[in-house]
Amino acid sequence: MTSGAKTGGGRFFEDYRVGETIRHAVPRTLTVGERALYHALYPARHALHSSDSFARACGLAAAPLDDLIVFHTVFGKSVPDISLNAVANLGYAEGRWLSPVWPGETITAESEVIGLRQLSSGKAGIVWVRTRGFADGRPCLSYVRWVMVRRRAPGEAPEAVVPELAEAVAASDLVVPEGLDFGGYDFALAGEPHRLSDYAVGEIIDHVDGVTVEEAEHMMATRLWQNTARVHFDATAREDGRRLIYGGHVISLARALSFNGLANAQTIVALNGGAHANPCFAGDTVRAWSEVLDRANLGNDIGALRLRLVATRGAAGQLRDDAGAYRPDVLLDLDCWALIPA
Amino acid sequence: MTSGAKTGGGRFFEDYRVGETIRHAVPRTLTVGERALYHALYPARHALHSSDSFARACGLAAAPLDDLIVFHTVFGKSVPDISLNAVANLGYAEGRWLSPVWPGETITAESEVIGLRQLSSGKAGIVWVRTRGFADGRPCLSYVRWVMVRRRAPGEAPEAVVPELAEAVAASDLVVPEGLDFGGYDFALAGEPHRLSDYAVGEIIDHVDGVTVEEAEHMMATRLWQNTARVHFDATAREDGRRLIYGGHVISLARALSFNGLANAQTIVALNGGAHANPCFAGDTVRAWSEVLDRANLGNDIGALRLRLVATRGAAGQLRDDAGAYRPDVLLDLDCWALIPA
Amino acid sequence: MTSGAKTGGGRFFEDYRVGETIRHAVPRTLTVGERALYHALYPARHALHSSDSFARACGLAAAPLDDLIVFHTVFGKSVPDISLNAVANLGYAEGRWLSPVWPGETITAESEVIGLRQLSSGKAGIVWVRTRGFADGRPCLSYVRWVMVRRRAPGEAPEAVVPELAEAVAASDLVVPEGLDFGGYDFALAGEPHRLSDYAVGEIIDHVDGVTVEEAEHMMATRLWQNTARVHFDATAREDGRRLIYGGHVISLARALSFNGLANAQTIVALNGGAHANPCFAGDTVRAWSEVLDRANLGNDIGALRLRLVATRGAAGQLRDDAGAYRPDVLLDLDCWALIPA
């Protein structure tokens, strides 16, 4: 029996060239159906994404799709071309949400290779890509990520190109959705009274609740983004018989949990960085805490909070051990900007 | 590390005042997405909520959202303000659906405190609220529930106010959706031939089927209503490591199962009372049976059946033991009115 | 306590008459909500059903609902009348998709009894039905299936009528959706470069990925089609305490997995035959492979591939043992036509 002639095995390190742009396959129309699933899979409660009437009172035409729905969809599109043979997802930088996405719009995505560096072992290399998402052709998201990708076969290293990446998106580069205005913001309807000035840099917020994760949930979520990386679905893919939970599932869990204490941080507009510190598996009870890293006032009564959003397997607590490594119960260390009434 | 300064712990008994009205947070736009999930999570088949064409033939503009979608959404909104520190959900009364809710409408909710009585122990008290739901501002649901809520600290009891509640909603107070007419009702399409006059008071109907419940299902359902009570999601919340299933999940399971024998009891219009007799956990196989308690003719070929809807963990059978207590396999004892062709 | 008076037990073999047409209950409006769930429950990625913009570029008004959403909905409607007392689902034939179905349309279904043959044991018989589905009244699907149904009581055999069924739908009988044109087909967006002429009769395609199935997933899927056959939901229904997974769940899993290698086989238009070779249970890891059985050119740059789509519990491999029986790890052997750019 023949096999594999029609199915590509994904790209390997030696298949990437700095400067090339890869158009990702399978455009995806997102609707209120995907939103309903998002709200069933995560305890998402931020009012701007939950309610058309609340969004209208904030100057928008309707509730835009949750920021992370857009992220996961664009990310999922990139998986077959970028990370099918990845050993590790190493980091994110310079992520910006450029436009709200409305139900009924179709997402397409592409990635530009902006860096390559082969490991000294010669068995793998690091690939940096700037991935761009479009909604009905309009830019809606852009971010850099870098992954370690295996070589198909040993070979000469390409010239190393390591991009210079901003440590964080500057507040002045944050894109506020057109029309957004927090002048008439209803804090009671939003769920908490805290505005920008109520948060202090260095403040830590425990998001209190925990969610024990089930296999069916993370697989449904990951499929919804048409992310088909085998390790998330096939219990025979790993020697230990466990399915590795898509790192983005943990991001969405942590973000949704952050409603407790950050209910007014309505929408994520930038991803400054992030590390999936340890793998997450079904049965884990995920909790989250945040640290306020920075604040900015953007006008129209809109402020921005730069947040470190941490997901843990246990209680909220320390991030790193004495040696500076992530503690074993830390799952995620994300650095992002979110908009909040000023 | 600081903690909890931004996250409220919910109200305690001493925080309620008779006469105050609490606006609940996070308005929620309900769509065909939430309906699809409802039909994936429960074996819901009543034709009026399943088919636009069937609903049109009954005089409505389209299929309204399932009555219990509206109930769960309104209930979920009330949880952070009413039952976050509740020890027990004690009862329901005077529940009435006041208007159909259509896909695309936004639900808001508020609760008026109508009764308070501190327990003699001084550690907790009973809070009665009348919760009202609105769809795009239009009243769509109203019901009374009472819960036992812990005190934060011991203290003097407030003056006891215990509301007088109707034993059941009078048939003359039932609200028939505007335009509804069962004159041209198609019993074959609805699935069963039985009309109002085919049901006798005292008759018992075994709904036959059973559903074994999974953790992922009840958590997705409960999240969908933005009900974030910790015991439903966090396996570490209880000493026995089990997640308590939201009582409303059992209501919806039983109502959906009741299609077998009550396929023409198309829509619930009143909740006269209800008790969550025993807790339900994943792995339980839920069955249901109903008893006809009363009948009424409302005109336009529309009748109403008052039903006791019982969910059990085992076979359909007796409700109470010789001492009058609910038998251990009884999960739910609900008293409601539903509309049926006369 | 009375029981069962209001709930039918379904039809038995002696209740069918050749020539009668049974209208199935509960019309169902399908929306983008059902589509989102389909894409969460299966790794479905065929671009025509995923993206309005891709579908428009192929001459359609928008992305039609996935072909198997329509199949499962029509099939589910027929279960209470045809297979509630079935011992086995024996086969399919002459299945044709007659029109795309668009979000918002309402599905109704009916079945005509076209054959009956009592077994020599006198305890059961085979019932052949031609089931027809309609979308807002327009024919959208037609197929024959035959099932073995128990007799309620022993009795005289009806005259045996065994329909003559086509071994496969002729290519000239395939219905191409009105307006479909693959002239400007974008292979990069679709995900693979292979067109009709790239596939050879006899070629075998391993679809590579595997999915480990969870109870919550197959139950949600099966409920979504309002298919309430007890064995799929009630862990107490079988002596071994296992829930039998709806055969259609395996069909959808295999079809979605077939994206790897058949990404351009955009939509199924005929079901020539099929066997659920062995039962599937939660915990099984489902894989799939296809064999090209035939090819045809239909005009407008549209071709058709006749495919044997096989789902297995283990690795892709042989279909039958030396004695000609399905090997124990084979779950599904489906014979269908799908449209692909010529």
UniProtKB/TrEMBL annotation, chains A, B, C:
It comes from the Bacteria. Keywords: Lyase. The lineage of its organism: Bacteria, Pseudomonadati, Pseudomonadota, Alphaproteobacteria, Rhodobacterales. Pfam families: MC_hydratase. One of its GO terms (molecular function) is lyase activity. This is L-erythro-3-methylmalyl-CoA dehydratase. Its EC number is 4.2.1.-. PANTHER family: BETA-METHYLMALYL-COA DEHYDRATASE, MONOAMINE OXIDASE-RELATED. It comes from Wenxinia marina DSM 24838. It is an enzyme of class 4 (lyase). InterPro entries: HotDog_dom_sf (IPR029069), MC_hydratase (IPR048274), MCH/BMMD (IPR052342), Thiol_ester_hydratase_Rv0216 (IPR016790). The keyword Transmembrane helix does not apply.
